[in-house]
Specification:
TIM Barrel; binds erythose-4-phosphate; eight-stranded parallel barrel; globular; 8 strands
């Protein structure tokens, strides 16, 4: 499974990239707002830090507007994935942009039928939002499993990019189900390393080491 960082914060992306932990990045208008940066400028910087796909989202709601914005965003770098919403016009824009050979991430997916349409429109990625489904008492992970089954039934090549991830359990469950990518905030990616038995075991080893009176260096 690939890990994408769901952020537009350059420092976080740089740290994760240095560790080899980030295979791509996803942004959206809310994350751009949070960064306080200009979309073209910050996206260019992110693309220079990360080799993999960097999703940048259009804001037009009509197909032609999305196509025009998508083409402009794609000029930033070769690794741009144009993010379009899962609407009828978004599907039209997806078809046109993928036919031109561009990567497209169809976002705001909340049902298996929507994911089926995104695959039919040639999407490179579909982004089902797990956390926002959980927020309304539905099971976001069930949606990931349903899409996995449907795509495998027919050999669709669209990658399942699990989004709106809120916990480390979301990541391990997505990996178990077979999502192709998980995009998560850097705080969640960092939390994956934590385990109380690791901390307890390390403390015990260090205590015993101190008793030996030895030094390695
Ligand atoms: C990523 O592509 C999505 O825009 C993002 O994961 C949404 O997450 P949120 O529901 O926490 O805002």
């Amino acid at each position: 499974m690939k890990f994408f960082a769901d952020t537009a914060e350059i420092d976080d992306i740089a740290e994760l990239a240095e560790l080899g932990l980030v295979d791509g990045v996803t942004t959206n208008p809310s994350l751009i707002l949070k960064s306080g940066r200009d979309i073209l400028e910050v996206t260019r910087e992110i693309c220079a830090l990360v080799d993999g796909p960097v999703s940048a989202e259009v804001v037009s709601t009509d197909a032609q507007g999305m196509i025009d914005e998508g083409r402009k965003l794609a000029e930033i770098a070769d690794n741009i994935a144009i993010k379009v919403p899962l609407t009828w016009d978004g599907l039209k824009a997806c078809k046109t942009l993928t036919t031109e050979g561009r990567m497209v991430n169809v976002t705001l997916c909340f049902s298996a039928n929507q994911a089926l349409l995104a695959a039919k429109a040639g999407a490179t990625f579909v982004s089902p939002f797990i956390g926002r489904l959980d927020d309304i008492n539905l099971d976001g992970l069930d949606l990931i499993a349903d899409i996995r089954t449907i795509y495998d039934n027919y050999g669709f090549e669209t990658r399942i990019l699990a989004a709106s991830i809120r916990s480390v359990n979301h990541i391990s469950e997505c990996a178990r189900i077979g999502a192709d990518v998980a995009t998560a905030p850097p705080s969640v990616l960092r939390k994956m390393v934590e385990h109380p038995l690791t901390d307890k075991g390390l403390a015990a080893f260090l205590k015993d080491w101190e008793k030996t009176g030895q030094k390695i260096l």
